[in-house]
Amino acid sequence: MNLFEDTYKTIAAPSEGIFKDKGSKFIAYAYPFHQEESLKDILLEIKSAHPKARHHCYAYRLTTDRSVFRINDDGEPSGTAGRPILNVLLSQDLTNILVIVVRYFGGTLLGVPGLINAYKQATIEALSEAETIEKTVNDCYRIHFDYLHMNDVMRIIKEENINISKQEFDNQCIIDMEIRQGEVNRTMSRFDKIDGLKKTYLYTN
């Protein structure tokens, strides 16, 4: 993908897949994923569900930039777990996604090629169970404005078909909203014409 594209492929909902080899069992969990802050909670959930598993390895991608990722081998030999998981995500061109693979050791060493194949295949199995969807890259903004300008603000939101994620209406109003990245400059220039309106960039998803 290049910097001018504002769509990407991800999965619609969590999914699971299993791969077995020489007694070892590899259970892969795939999740739609938008913010690094949520990784800790998801890992805790997986580890509490599989307390006797030997390893909990993962990889994730964020944004359309192929260099934004993180991998973790969780005690497996370097390059045998997180990297194969990531390579599947890259080959299928999926982003804003997290895959965690839980391994139960079966007593027989698989060797480096065997481990790479196992983590790869478990990831493929989980993704084959998922629905792949295309989404737009959206910049999320928070706007503050006086209640007197409510009609002007809501007119722009309706005309630009903007998705509102949070709103608070009082004398001073707050709206969190998502704007497709390719339309941000034009849309925000309309909001700039409203007296006293303040905008804050939050994040991109």
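Second entry:
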Amino acid sequence: MMTTKTEMIVRVDRDGSTAGLGALLAEMEENPQVAGILLLACDQNGFQPGSVDRLLAGLTKPVFGGIFPEILHGNEKLSLGTIAVGLRHTPRLLTVPSLSDPSFDFDTYLDSHSSQLGQGQTMFVWVDGLAARIGGLMESLFHIFGLEQNYIGGGAGSLSFEQKPCLFTNQGLIGDAAVLAVLDIPSGIGVSHGWTPISGPHKVTHSEGAVIHSLNWRPAFDVYREAIAQATGQTVTRENFFALSKSHPFGIIRLGDEMVVRDPIVVREDGALVCVGEVPQESHVDILTGDPISLVEAARRAVALGQAALKTAALGTAEPSHFTFFVDCISRVLFLEDGFSEELAAVQSPGVPLVGVLSLGEVANSGHSYLEFYNKTAVVGILGV
């Protein structure tokens, strides 16, 4: 149990049970200081709509969040358990359905529901990390809401890569959707990844959503494995692909800004590569590498960027209390293994509580230039509450 001067109330159930979830929600519901609930759970809990929907539907306070491979509390990484964060400010919520439907018009839907969200200072964006049109949603969020507010969030779901209900709402546990929550609190967002090119640029000559069919007019897997062999001497096969690809993601090149990292996770029979998140056709990508030192330093840099951005946002006002929200890609954990404890230590600030998730992709705006869905990237939100 932890209560801090931030006026956010954080409670943890380490058993990951439905009964534990019910106890957390009951405490938040009964506390008059809590105006809304951010709910984060581990996939290993095994939560199903049939067991948790009645708990969620019984709440009078707004609730939002998701189920992730692992979650973070202070310097702990939890693979089993649930975290409930009691918010002092009432979140304004919107659920976006049909996140894989190619015919769904995100612009029209968001525009028609924009008054429901209003304009705040910080928007949490939780998406089903295995949905097919996350990039399309990011574009529509930018079109409708712009960059006048900050964005932070990520992809919920399971490392089994089986798409299933993974987002918490007051209507229950849902999938293939996004949940947006606007809060009237200042924030500073830091984004950094620590990966560097070893091959490229390669032109994406044929892609569909998250599937790269060809690079440089050749099957994507052929180009990828030849580039890895030339740069590292390693032989990439279909059998060892997932084990080796975690060390060599793609980087979508963006002029004047950090690359957007994409995780290739599956080789198809036709030689196409399936990534977590869309890769635009006609874009250019590098093949990347990294090491524990560069990744930990990137996380440290994300904290510094977030702190500096919050100071700018809060300029001329009283210094707010701080709360750190850390969204880190689960594939960084798979890459760092035991070294992840160093990355988690790097984002801690003395006297500042930290909560976070290990996600299937990260959502953030990098400065005021882009709103993106990232992979293998450290996103740090310093919330002034």
